[in-house]
Each structure stands twice: as structure tokens, then as C-alpha cells.
């Protein structure tokens, strides 16, 4: 029972992180009006948050290995609460940009820290499913941004909405201080201090493990489409290009969360029982994302609502699909550097997301602003990432399988089937 309490508290911190991450996505047009931002500037606004998030992953992973989950979750929550408070009071674009950068930094600390709790508190067979549950239930933060947060923005206003989110973050920090423990016996053994050269050598070693790279490209190919949709361009696309009301657009984001929860449970159970088929699931998700976008973008006019619902449901599987990348990292890395490995994997999807978000903003601006045609053209940049991800997954999967026999069982967190075969 204690394990579930610790995990649930960490999960609450992650829910708040997702809420903070997606608040600007549902208020993008409000932000453009409030701060006088063009489409290109608005995308830069959000991209900065993602740049900070992605760029902080490796430092956050190193700090996580040294200080443990509790310290990092509390630090991340404090930063995000401060960022949202600044956002509530900001009346100029520079202040808002700084606020989103602070949110991105705090967000970087949170997710990987919650994930690191799982191997310490749960059994080997529980880990894949609990990892999936962490990702999918964390997306409840997106529901909070799409419904109550948006209602506050449309009602009491911008400042009240962001102040409320900041207060919620403070609550999560207090609960984390009270209830979260790194391991059942207290703090995890920290990684000893290292020189810059030793740190860089350790990073290189972690990256060169094929399982780490397989996790990185898994995360890249599955996660970016739904992230770009939820974090930045989904609501503007649905309202401006597809002609839906903001209420219906918010409901579709809620449908996205429901779809992610459902698919995540299925993926978690399947990969837990069939770890040797994990990469097949990943390739299926990437291909299905590309196919549904092809159907929608091929239409010369606005898509029917049922097709837009289908689009949201299909791309939403990318969120839980990306969690399989962390399972690859866990399988092929020792526990003492797991935080670093998870940080590297987590960069994959967000690096792809920031490139796509910024590219879309530039394309929309160059095409004359928000319109059906400009959005249709902008979404096409996704295909480049999908091709890169598919090729990289196929290559790194082959290399990971070749190294299985070379892995020292005493060093790594490995999964075995009942008949003794190593998971891959």
C-alpha cells in the first residue's frame, strides 16, 4: 500500500506538470492577443519552453542520479508554481517568455523523477504497467487545462486561471515533501561526484548502448505528433482551420486523454507479457499516425467531425507508446545511471516536437497566417520525423538484439521470460 501512496503522490506532481505544460496550448489565441504575438512569435514562445525542457533532460538526469526523486520532484514543482505565478501577472511578452522558460525547467525535473520511483517500489512484472499508468494518468493534466482551466480563462480571466494553477502546484509540492520517499529504505544511493570528463564519458557510454538509442528514437517517433497537437497547434487548427468551437475543441482534447488511458493500459499489459514484441507496437503506432494524418490532410475541405475524433484517438496512442522507450532504457542500463538514460530518451520526442512546432509556425506565417491551407501545409513537416524514426528504430533494434548475449546480468536491470529468454 505504501508503494501506491508514494507513486500516487509523484503522479499528482506529474499531473500538475502536464497541466502547466499544456495551459498555453488551450490559450494560444488569447496569448497572441494579450501579448500581440504573430503566429511565428507564438510558436517561438512555446518552443522556448520545450527547448528548455529538452535541453535540461540530461542535466536533470544527472542531478536525479545524485539527489534522488524526492528532491527533484519538489524542486520541479516549486519552479513550475513560480513560473505560472509569473505568467498570471505578466503583461509583456518578455515576462511571459521568462515565465514559460521557468515552467519548462521545472517540468524537466518532474517526469523522469517520478519514473525513477517505479523500479524501487514495484516488482519486475509490475514495472511496465505502472510505467504506462504514470504516463497515461499524468495526461489528466491535459483534461484540467482543457476544461476547468479554460473555463477560468473564459470566465474570471487570464490572471485568475494562472494563479489557480500556481496554487495547485504549491499543494503538490507540499504533498511530495510529506509523502514521497526515494526507496522503501530511504534515499537511493547517490552517484558519486565526477569530473567533467568523467561525466561526459558516462553520457557517451549511456548513449552508445543500443537500448538507449532505441528508446530515444521510439520516443521521438511516437510522441511528437500528439504533443504538438496538445501543446500548441491543436486548438488553433480545430477552431480556425476546421471551424469547430473552442468548447468542442476542448472536448476533443479530453477525448485524447481518454484514448491515451485506454491505449496505454492495453500497451502496458501487452508489452509486459510480450517484451520481445515492443518494437512491433512502436512501428505500428508510428505508421498509424502517418496514415490517419494522410487521410485528413488529403481532404480538399474541412474534415467531418467523426474523422477529427478518429484523428485525435489514433494520435493519442503515441503518448503511451512513447513510454515503451523508457522501458528500453531500463532494460539496457544499470540502475545507478538510469536517471541519465531516461533523460536521454525523454529528449527524443520533445526535440522532434520543438522542431515541428517552430517549423509549423514559420510555415503558417509565410503562408499568410491562420487558414485551412496554411495549416494543411504546415502539418506536412511531420512526415520527415516519421521517416527518420522508423529507419532509426529498425537499425537500433537490430543492434540491441545483437548485444543481448554480451550484457552482464550482474550489472543491468534485465527482464527475463519464464523460459529464461532475455526481453528485447
How would you describe the overall organization of this protein?
Pfam families: MFS_1. The protein is built from 18 helices and no strands. With 424 residues, the chain is an all-alpha fold. The chain has a single domain, classed as Growth Hormone, Chain: A (Up-down Bundle), CATH 1.20.1250. The protein has helices at 2-26, 28-35, 39-55, 57-67, 69-89, 93-121, 127-138, 140-154, 158-179, 196-208, 210-241, 246-273, 278-298, 305-316, 318-332, 338-366, 372-378, 382-403. Helices cover 80% and strands 0% of the residues. Helix 8 packs antiparallel against helix 9 (158-179), helix 8 packs antiparallel against helix 12 (246-273) and helix 11 (210-241) packs antiparallel against helix 15 (318-332). The model is unreliable at 406-424 (pLDDT under 50).
Amino acid at each position: 500500500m505504501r508503494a501506491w501512496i508514494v507513486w500516487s503522490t509523484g503522479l499528482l506532481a506529474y499531473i500538475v506538470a502536464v497541466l502547466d505544460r499544456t495551459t498555453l496550448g488551450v490559450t494560444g489565441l488569447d496569448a497572441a492577443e494579450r501579448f500581440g504575438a504573430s503566429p511565428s512569435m507564438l510558436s517561438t514562445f512555446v518552443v522556448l519552453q520545450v527547448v528548455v525542457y529538452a535541453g535540461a533532460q540530461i542535466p536533470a538526469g544527472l542531478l536525479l542520479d545524485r539527489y534522488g526523486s524526492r528532491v527533484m520532484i519538489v524542486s520541479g514543482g516549486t519552479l513550475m508554481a513560480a513560473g505560472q505565478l509569473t505568467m498570471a501577472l505578466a503583461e509583456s511578452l518578455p515576462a511571459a517568455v521568462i515565465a514559460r522558460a521557468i515552467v519548462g525547467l521545472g517540468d524537466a525535473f518532474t517526469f523522469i523523477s517520478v519514473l525513477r520511483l517505479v523500479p524501487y517500489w514495484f516488482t519486475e512484472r509490475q514495472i511496465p504497467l505502472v510505467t504506462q499508468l504514470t504516463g497515461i494518468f499524468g495526461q489528466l493534466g491535459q483534461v484540467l487545462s482543457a476544461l476547468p482551466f479554460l473555463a477560468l480563462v473564459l470566465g474570471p480571466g487570464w490572471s485568475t486561471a494562472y494563479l489557480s494553477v500556481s496554487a495547485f502546484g504549491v499543494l503538490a509540492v507540499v504533498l511530495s515533501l510529506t509523502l514521497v520517499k526515494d526507496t522503501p529504505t530511504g534515499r537511493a544511493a547517490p552517484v558519486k561526484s565526477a569530473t567533467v570528463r568523467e561525466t561526459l564519458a558516462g553520457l557517451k557510454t549511456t548513449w552508445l548502448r543500443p537500448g538507449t538509442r532505441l528508446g530515444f528514437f521510439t520516443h521521438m517517433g511516437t510522441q511528437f505528433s500528439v504533443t504538438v497537437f496538445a501543446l500548441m497547434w491543436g486548438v488553433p487548427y480545430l477552431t480556425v482551420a476546421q471551424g469547430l468551437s473552442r468548447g468542442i475543441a476542448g472536448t476533443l482534447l479530453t477525448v485524447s486523454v481518454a484514448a491515451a488511458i485506454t491505449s496505454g493500459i492495453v500497451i502496458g499489459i501487452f508489452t509486459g507479457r510480450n517484451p520481445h514484441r515492443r518494437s512491433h507496437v512502436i512501428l505500428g503506432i508510428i505508421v498509424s499516425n502517418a496514415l490517419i494524418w494522410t487521410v485528413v490532410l488529403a481532404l480538399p475541405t474541412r474534415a467531418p467531425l467523426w474523422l477529427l475524433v478518429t484523428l485525435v484517438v489514433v494520435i493519442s496512442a503515441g503518448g503511451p507508446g512513447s513510454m515503451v522507450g523508457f522501458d528500453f532504457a531500463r532494460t539496457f542500463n544499470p540502475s545507478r545511471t538510469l536517471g541519465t538514460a531516461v533523460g536521454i530518451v525523454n529528449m527524443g520526442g520533445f526535440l522532434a516536437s520543438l522542431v515541428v512546432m517552430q517549423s509549423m509556425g514559420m510555415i503558417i506565417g509565410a503562408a499568410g497566417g491562420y487558414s485551412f491551407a496554411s495549416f494543411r501545409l504546415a502539418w506536412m513537416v511531420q512526415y520527415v520525423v516519421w521517416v527518420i524514426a522508423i529507419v532509426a528504430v529498425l537499425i537500433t533494434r537490430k543492434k540491441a538484439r545483437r548485444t543481448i548475449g554480451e550484457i552482464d546480468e550482474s550489472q543491468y536491470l534485465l527482464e527475463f521470460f519464464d523460459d529464461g529468454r532475455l526481453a528485447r
